[in-house]
């Protein structure tokens, strides 16, 4: 999403970007030396997939809070060219900081703003890391030629190192590859996908409000663009939102079927009503794969369901009409 189109509070900080670039360039060679003995992850690697604004950040935060997983934290995310170095720094600032001298509190919360979490230990989307390996244009779906140029060996090695730093199964958001899940499964055979879907109307409403919060303009596209963007961009706002949700979920379902891998599909509404059930499904899957989990569930029994229409200008009848019109035209 172009920086110039964002409202001021969402614009990238150029000074910070420059510092992070210098830091990552300086650490990149050391990262290669430190990770040379890693090859591929030993445990299943979990990827959250789904639509933007479908509850994936909440799911990510909750999964991180269970203690079952290693994941790229906000600390680690700053080291996108040296994530293993970032993981070691994370451990110094968090795991070994028993007197809370460095960052203060290390608590995870279930609050976020447009996918951004607060606190050094909170999970991060880590898109800068993904974009090191995958060269996206305006559309997120990559061609076979694009994929043939990916340094998949280094990508998998970096994930193995990140896993190794914590000796736990790795968890990441994988939505940036929603349209290339079969490829992800090919290069990472132990990948597990958690596909989250939300009631379409509320997913559309959340995307609608995200456009306003991020750009200050409901006519600007928020988040990843499916191949269907070529014709969706010429439709009205509600048809764009309906198409974004519909075609993204369809691509994910088709990609997961093609990948023929381990998949956990769940609705946002069911997850909020009974998160313990998802914990048990994950624990059972890990157990089948030889990673025994003795831990019992200690999280909330219910998570607040935020399926409410908060923006009075969002027209539900138009949203329903848009869903119907897309169904009729296919």
Automatic annotation (TrEMBL):
The keyword Transferase applies. InterPro entries: P-loop_NTPase (IPR027417). GO terms for molecular function: transferase activity. SUPFAM superfamilies: P-loop containing nucleoside triphosphate hydrolases. It comes from the Bacteria. The keyword Transferase applies. Keywords: Transferase. This is Sulfotransferase family protein. It comes from Fodinibius roseus. The lineage of its organism: Bacteria, Pseudomonadati, Balneolota, Balneolia, Balneolales.
């Amino acid at each position: 999403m172009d920086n110039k189109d964002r409202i001021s509070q969402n614009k990238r900080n150029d000074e910070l970007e420059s510092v992070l670039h210098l830091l990552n360039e300086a650490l990149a060679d050391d990262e290669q030396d430190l990770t040379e003995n890693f090859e591929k992850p030993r445990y299943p690697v979990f990827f959250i997939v789904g639509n933007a604004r479908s509850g994936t950040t909440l799911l990510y935060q909750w999964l991180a809070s269970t203690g079952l997983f290693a994941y790229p934290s906000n600390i680690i995310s700053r080291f996108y060219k040296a994530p293993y170095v970032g993981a070691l720094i994370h451990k110094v600032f968090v795991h070994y900081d028993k007197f809370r001298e460095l960052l203060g509190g290390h608590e995870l919360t279930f609050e976020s703003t447009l996918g951004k979490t607060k606190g050094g230990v909170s999970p991060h989307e880590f898109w800068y890391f993904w974009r090191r390996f995958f060269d996206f244009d305006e559309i997120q779906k990559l061609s076979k030629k694009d994929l043939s140029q990916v340094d998949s060996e280094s990508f998998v090695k970096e994930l193995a190192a990140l896993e190794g730093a914590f000796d736990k199964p790795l968890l990441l958001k994988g939505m940036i590859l929603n349209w290339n899940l079969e490829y992800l499964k090919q290069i990472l055979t132990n990948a597990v996908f958690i596909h989250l879907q939300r009631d379409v109307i509320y997913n559309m409403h959340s995307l609608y409000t995200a456009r306003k919060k991020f750009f200050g303009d409901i006519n600007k596209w928020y988040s990843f663009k499916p191949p269907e963007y070529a014709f969706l961009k010429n439709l009205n706002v509600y048809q764009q939102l309906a198409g974004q949700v519909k075609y993204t979920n369809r691509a994910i379902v088709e990609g997961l079927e093609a990948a023929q891998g381990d998949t956990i599909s769940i609705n946002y509404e069911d997850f909020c009503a009974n998160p313990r059930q998802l914990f048990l499904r994950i624990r059972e899957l890990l157990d089948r794969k030889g990673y025994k989990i003795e831990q019992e569930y200690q999280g909330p029994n219910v998570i607040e369901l935020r399926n409410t229409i908060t923006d009075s200008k969002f027209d539900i009848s138009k949203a329903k009409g848009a869903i119907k019109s897309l169904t009729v035209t296919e």
